[in-house]
Amino acid sequence: MNRRKLMLGGVAAAAAFAGAGVAWRQLQPHGAPVAAGGQGAALDPFWSQAFDTPDGASLTLASFSGKPLLVNFWATWCPPCIEELPLLDSFYRENKAKSWQVLGLAVDQPSAVRAWLQRKPLGFPVAMAGFSGTELSKSLGNLSGGLPFTVVFGASGQLLHRKSGKVTPEDLAQWVQLA
After folding, report:
1. DSSP symbols for 82-145
2. How would you class 88 by CB atoms within 10 Å of its CB: exposed for 0-12, middle for 13-18, buried for 19 or more?
3. Phi, psi at 80, each rounded to 5°
C-alpha cells in the first residue's frame, strides 16, 4: 500500500510540475526579440501584416516600429473589452507625447465595429483583424484565444508583456515603467 501511495504522489508531483511549466510558459514572452522593421530589417510575420481600418484604409503593423506599442485584441460583443477601452484611450491620450502607441485589433464584424466607434470614438487607431485575429493573438501567447488580450512591444519590437483579461491602471503604470 505504501508503494502505491508513493507512486501516486510521484505522478501528482509530476503533473503539478508540468502544469506550473505550462503556466510559466504562458506568462513569458515567446522566443527571441521580434524585429520591428526599418531599413533593411527582416520583418517578423507579426510586423509584416496589414489590416483594413473601419473606414477602409490600410494599416500596416510595420508603421508602428520604433516606439513602444500596446496592441489590444477586442470585440464589440465582449463586455470586459468594452469596459477597458476608455482606460486604454486615456492611456493613449496621456502617453502619445511620450512616444507610446496603442492599436486596437477588432476580432469582430466590420459593421459592428464601425457602429460602435460612431457611438464611442477612440483616439487611437483601430484595425479589423476579423475572426482570424484569434489565431494572431494565439501566436502572441493567448493560448486560450479569449478576449480581451493585450500585448506590449518595446521600441525595438520585442514582446515585453502580455495579458489575458481586462487591463488595469496598475498594469499600464507598470508597463510604462518597464518599456
Report:
1. HHHHHHHHHHHHHHGGGT-EEEEEE-S-HHHHHHHHHHS--SS-EEE-GGGHHHHHHHTT-TT-
2. buried
3. -65, -30
Q: Which residue has the higher pLDDT, 76 or 23?
A: 76
DSSP 3-state assignment of 162? strand
Residue 34: φ, ψ to 5°: -90, 130
With residue 47 as reference, give the H or E element that holds it.
none
Do 36 and 65 form a contact (C-beta atoms < 8 A)? yes
The torsion of the CA quartet 157, 117, 82, 122, rounded to 10 degrees, works out to 50
How many CB atoms lie under 10 A from the CB of residue 4?
8
Query: What grid cell was written down for 43?
Result: 520583418
Which three three-digit cell numbers place residue 73? 485584441
Does residue 152 sit in helix, strand or coil? strand
SS3 label, residue 58 = strand
Instruction: Convert the pLDDT of each residue in 45-84 to its tens digit.
Output: 899 999 999 999 999 999 999 999 999 999 999 999 999 9
Amino acid at 33: P
pLDDT of residue 176: 94
